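Researcher: I'd like a structural prediction for the single chain below. Treat it as a standalone chain; there are no partners to consider.
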Amino acid sequence: MSTSSERYYQAVNELLARIAATQQENIARAAEVMADCIKRDELVYLLGSGHSLAIAMEGYYRAGGLACVDVIEDTTFGRAERVEGYAETVLKNYNISSGSVVIIVSNSGRNAMPVETALWCRERGIKTVAITSLAHSKSVTSRHSSNKRLFEIADVVIDNCGMPGDAILEIEGLPGRACPTSGLAGIFIVESMVAQTIENLIKAGVTPPVFISANIDGGDEHNESLLKKYINRVRGI
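Model: Treating it as a single chain, here is the predicted structure.
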């Protein structure tokens, strides 16, 4: 009999394979939008509330990542994500132009913050990419007064292929399930978009603004010009 850790490993492998098999077209569309944004010297923003913040952080200021990426931070770590008006309070602290791209990460896609962010972007002509669980989102109602869920608003929707409730593993003696998949799936999707965006930029003759590790020889020298370019545009670098 396999152990719970082995069964989780198998479940995650199957999930990532399902994303790779079914979401390539949507990932390619997202990468096209991102590459076009970067060609115009605009920024890509990532928003994740609660544990989705960990997925958003994957794209920010790291070795092998794009330098032109900022994170829209929910400092309440999800505690205010159901409060209408909170998203606009957060968004006004960022200089998000109409040429930017906002990637919104929300497994359920039902709460006010991701929905309100997508609507705010639509009103301003800002392209949005949603990373969400369609199975979960379609099984619940919206918690926003628009009665919309994230997948119904975003310009590009990428399904993380997770199940309702996120947790996937049944363990004998435990009521309900344990061990979510949205974090691993979301990071895989983000890095897949980054990979394709970089390829698109190179094919277009544009040098991708990619950080390399500061912990290898030459890393600081390579990154210096990127930091100078974005230091007054990307918060915290």
